[in-house]
Write a structure and sequence with these properties.
Blueprint: E1 5-10, H1 14-25, E2 30-34, E3 48-50, H2 54-64, H3 68-74, E4 76-82, E5 92-97, H4 99-111, E6 116-120, E7 123-129, E8 132-138, E9 143-151, E10 160-163, E11 166-169, H5 181-187, E12 193-199, E13 202-204, E14 214-216, E15 239-243, H6 246-254, H7 277-283, E16 291-296, E17 303-307, H8 315-323, E18 333-335, E19 338-344, E20 362-364, H9 374-392, H10 406-417, H11 441-451, H12 457-479, E21 481-482, H13 484-494, E22 503-504, H14 505-509, H15 516-520, H16 524-546, H17 548-565, E23 567-568, H18 583-592, H19 597-601, H20 608-619, E24 625-626
Parallel strand pairs: 1-2, 1-9, 2-6, 9-20
Antiparallel strand pairs: 3-5, 4-5, 7-8, 8-9, 10-11, 10-19, 12-19, 13-17, 13-18, 14-15, 15-16, 16-17, 21-22, 23-24
Helix pairs in contact: 1-9, 2-9, 2-11, 3-4, 6-8, 11-12, 12-16
Length: 627
């Protein structure tokens, strides 16, 4: 059979863009089908990338060779490293972005890929034969054959927009919904559900009184997402913070009957960690106020995004609510906030490659899997694009472990546990978060990106040089002996215990009160060495030394988990004879058919006791295998 393309990517959002990038960069002939080429990588919600847990994902995408980090840097109007007051495992980069530039730069990046073609249309059905996808059919009746299909439909599958009592079919404002695919997938045996998300009103920044708000400036020394070819911002735009109050809350309470969430118009679940204003008033009734973040939409626009004020109340109520906020007294609304319901498919129906278990060569990525957020979508698209290419070329799949990256944590959570509400990444979801810091994503993943053909040679060479420089500085610190006369005055100032004999700078740096810069002030040679290798190397050295024992413990725990992962459960294993298993565990294990004991351990309702019983039956038996 002749195929028109190796991979078809359906949808031009964040997942679709990374999927198309990955598959085409490593050699597949790819077609990206989207409703509108003018909406490529549209920032439908807030114009920002990264944040707590999410910034780590963007750095991992970049380290593997994806584009999101570079484009976020190029379109940034502000950079902040969040959680700097906490330990290094919690540091999370975030950019405020120019919405139009972000989309424009993504389109330029995609158009620079020679293996990537574009088609502006709506996919209405899949070509499926013998439980294998063979292409797509569009609304115009065009049939396009391919060896693999990646669905990244975002909020467009039977999307329904709510503003008060008004309901409009659509995937975004002024963009129609996609129909037909959900219905076909149901006939093929897929389970489906509905989810909800929302967005706040956009307002005219000229009508705000910023003197009544708190200014939120970017970092004095702004960083970047990308590990290569990124220039830090020289100029930044400020964001602002204000608060709701009793009057705002009363307006919402008086009109709550008009909210689609509370009058029964919306039945689906929204994101727990990004609730609507109506939800906040209901769930946190004891709070007198809530933060409202005023964020510019770009360099040269009056449009402002009101982060924290997601709502689907009627337009007139939204305006009254806005004008009750401090600094918003004369505000003009440019577009109302709205809620949107859409179809998703529980991700427990996927393999760890993001290929569906029911239909071969069909992959799901992004909000179709129940996630929320640009970053979560982008990393799924990246992995789906990689794995679609690799399967087409009879190569081993690429599956990241939980100890490899936040991407591995996210996919493992989705596939093994599923989600009944929009899934959002947090640092707390990663049990190995000290290993999975944002600063070392290149050290963890760039070799892998190069091995699969996604990272160029110059990126690998830069990594190797960085590793060499880190080793040189660590060696220098271990050999550099510091006398009590040189360091005790500093230690006394910092409230640390004094030393009585020479110690290596490496040992001294382990002290929580001492920073690397404190030591560098003692020795010109050390200061010169660090200056030669740059801030990035200095940061790595300091983190590796200070957290050495904790990092060792996490590696040991990771190794234990890997041993559990290597216990393979035979595909035809029968759980029913194991009487000691709980009823819930038996039911879920039989239905989900986990491949390994580790997968089984992550299934909700399967207890550690159940895993111990399984280990007795298969982990130590002659029938167990090693992956």
């Amino acid at each position: 059979m002749r195929f028109d393309y190796d991979v078809i990517v359906v949808g031009g959002g964040h997942a679709g863009c990374e999927a198309a990038t990955a598959a085409s960069k490593i050699g597949s002939k790819v077609l990206l089908i989207t409703m509108s080429l003018n909406s490529i990588a549209q920032m439908s919600c807030n114009p920002a990338m990264g944040g707590i847990g999410k910034g780590q994902i963007i750095r991992e995408i970049d380290a593997l060779g994806g584009f999101s980090g570079m484009i976020a840097d190029r379109s940034a109007i502000q950079f902040r490293m969040l959680n700097k007051s906490k330990g290094a495992a919690m540091w999370s980069p975030r950019t405020q972005n120019d919405r139009k530039l972000f989309s424009e730069y993504w389109r330029r990046a995609l158009e620079s890929l020679p293996n990537l073609d574009f088609w502006q249309d709506v996919v209405t059905s899949l070509l499926v034969k013998d439980n294998k996808v063979l292409g797509v059919k569009t609304a115009r009746g065009v049939v396009i054959q391919s060896r693999a299909v990646i669905l990244t439909n975002g909020t467009f599958l039977n999307g329904l927009i709510h503003v008060g009592a008004q309901q409009t079919s659509g995937g975004r404002v002024a963009e129609r919904a996609a129909t037909g695919i959900t219905e076909q997938l149901i006939t093929l045996g897929f389970e489906t559900g509905r989810m909800k998300t929302g967005t706040p009103p956009r307002i005219d920044g000229r009508t705000l009184d910023y003197t009544k708000m708190e200014e939120q400036q970017g970092d004095v020394s702004p960083g970047v997402f990308s590990f290569i070819n990124a220039t830090p911002l020289r100029e930044q735009r400020s964001c602002f913070i204000t608060y709701t109050n009793a009057m705002v809350h009363d307006i919402i309470k008086d009109n709550i009957r008009y909210s689609p969430m509370y009058n029964g118009q919306i039945q689906s679940k929204g994101p727990r960690y990004c609730p609507s204003m109506e939800d906040k008033i209901h769930r946190f009734a004891d709070k007198e106020r809530h933060q409202v973040f005023v964020e510019p939409e770009g360099w040269h626009t009056i449009e402002m995004y009101v982060n924290g004020l997601s709502t689907s109340l009627p337009e007139n109520v939204q305006l009254n609510m806005l004008r009750a906020i401090t600094g918003f007294e004369k505000v003009k609304m440019m577009s109302p906030g709205y809620a949107i319901e859409y179809d998703y498919f529980p991700p427990t129906q996927l393999d760890y490659t993001l290929e569906t278990r029911l239909i071969k060569n069909l992959y799901f990525a992004g909000q179709i899997n129940g996630t929320t957020g640009y970053e979560e979508a982008a990393c799924q698209g990246l992995m789906a694009g990689i794995n679609a290419h690799r399967k087409n070329n009879d190569l081993d799949p690429l599956v990241l472990k939980r100890s490899d990256g936040y991407i591995g944590v996210l996919i493992d959570d989705l596939v093994s546990k599923g989600t009944e509400e929009p899934y959002r990444m947090f640092t707390s979801r990663a049990e190995f978060r000290l290993l999975l810091r944002q600063d070392n994503a290149d050290l963890r993943l760039t070799r892998l990106g190069h091995d699969i053909g996604l990272c160029e040679e110059d990126r690998l060479n830069k990594l190797l040089k960085k590793e060499e420089n880190i080793a040189l500085v660590l060696d220098f610190l271990s050999k550099w002996k510091v006398t009590p006369e040189k360091i005790n005055a500093k230690l006394e100032t910092l409230g640390g215990s004094l030393i009585t004999e020479m110690q290596s700078a490496y040992t001294l740096l382990k002290r929580p009160e001492l920073a690397l810069n404190d030591l560098l002030m003692l020795e010109d040679q050390a200061h010169k060495l660090i200056a030669e290798h740059g801030e990035e190397v200095a940061q790595q050295v300091e983190i590796q030394v200070k957290y050495e024992s904790y990092l060792r413990k996490e590696r040991e725990l990771s190794a234990k988990m890997e041993r559990l992962e290597n216990h393979v459960i035979p595909a035809d294993f029968n759980y029913h004879p194991i009487k000691a298993l709980s009823t819930e565990a038996l039911e879920k294990l039989q239905k989900r058919r986990p491949r390994t004991l580790k997968e089984a351990a992550h299934i909700s309702g399967v207890t550690p006791a159940d895993i111990s019983i399984l280990m007795v039956y298969i982990g130590r038996s002659s029938s167990s295998q090693v992956a």
